[in-house]
Automatic annotation (TrEMBL):
<keyword id="KW-0804">Transcription</keyword>
<keyword id="KW-0238">DNA-binding</keyword>
<dbReference type="GO" id="GO:0003677">
    <property type="term" value="F:DNA binding"/>
</dbReference>
<dbReference type="InterPro" id="IPR011711">
    <property type="entry name" value="GntR_C"/>
</dbReference>
<dbReference type="InterPro" id="IPR036390">
    <property type="entry name" value="WH_DNA-bd_sf"/>
</dbReference>
<feature type="domain" description="HTH gntR-type">
    <location>
        <begin position="1"/>
        <end position="65"/>
    </location>
</feature>
<dbReference type="InterPro" id="IPR000524">
    <property type="entry name" value="Tscrpt_reg_HTH_GntR"/>
</dbReference>
<keyword id="KW-0805">Transcription regulation</keyword>
<dbReference type="InterPro" id="IPR036388">
    <property type="entry name" value="WH-like_DNA-bd_sf"/>
</dbReference>
<dbReference type="GO" id="GO:0003700">
    <property type="term" value="F:DNA-binding transcription factor activity"/>
</dbReference>
<dbReference type="Pfam" id="PF00392">
    <property type="entry name" value="GntR"/>
</dbReference>
<protein>
    <recommendedName>
        <fullName>HTH gntR-type domain-containing protein</fullName>
    </recommendedName>
</protein>
<dbReference type="Pfam" id="PF07729">
    <property type="entry name" value="FCD"/>
</dbReference>
<dbReference type="InterPro" id="IPR008920">
    <property type="entry name" value="TF_FadR/GntR_C"/>
</dbReference>
Length: 210
């Protein structure tokens, strides 16, 4: 099931299956070379993260975001995720350092990852790792930010395909964010996170209007 899920997710993130496309179990199974059972489970998993919409009567389709939805998602992320990064930066040094070491390893992988789908998956893991220390002191904030990040995965991949230079800038932002959190600089963490999210939204809105 994991292989089927990762394969379908990669095809969606690369744009090989476009937003709004209908997904039938038999067609997807044939395309990726598997049976329908793992595909059925894969689509359910992807629906839980917002990549797929499943309707009991209309079947499954790749989620097609609207400009209004994107604006709302990123407005919420700029409120909640920025607050989350500030709270992480304010934690005890030991908690910050552990999160930053692991996130830093992911940042290094991202700098060597040219594939949009691979980069977007690592990006999700990177931000999740930085937020990990909030699971106990801020569990609701952690869950809300995680949900918004999941719903941002396809938009992020779309932005990277529209403007590939965004990947390099995002990699630089990630290094800056890790550095700010590692040294406990809450103001810098807030600024970097805000600019990082805002830049992605600008690219997305340009690609929608173009």
């Amino acid at each position: 099931m994991d292989l089927a899920r990762d394969t379908v997710r990669g095809m969606i993130l690369r744009g090989e299956i476009t937003a709004g496309s209908r997904l039938t179990l038999t067609e997807v199974a044939h395309r990726i070379g598997t049976s329908v059972t793992p595909v059925r489970e894969a689509l359910r998993d992807l629906a839980a993260t917002g990549l797929i919409d499943i309707d009991a009567h209309k079947g499954a389709r790749v989620h097609a975001a609207t400009t209004g939805e994107l604006t709302e998602i990123y407005a919420l992320r700029q409120m909640l995720e920025v607050r989350a990064m500030v709270e992480v930066a304010a934690l005890e040094e030991e908690d910050r350092v552990v999160a930053c070491i692991l996130a830093g390893k992911l940042a290094t992988q991202m700098e060597d990852e040219p594939d949009v789908a691979g980069w977007a998956t690592l990006n999700l893991d990177f931000h999740a790792r930085l937020a990990e220390p909030l699971r106990t002191p801020w569990p609701l904030l952690y869950c809300l930010v995680e949900s918004l990040r999941n719903r941002s995965m396809l938009p992020v991949a779309t932005a990277l395909r529209a403007e590939p230079a965004l990947m390099h800038q995002a990699n630089c932002d990630h290094r800056d964010l890790v550095a700010a959190i590692r040294c406990g600089d809450t103001d810098r963490a807030a600024r970097v996170a805000t600019e990082h999210l805002g830049r992605t939204l600008e690219v997305l809105l340009r690609s929608f209007s173009g």
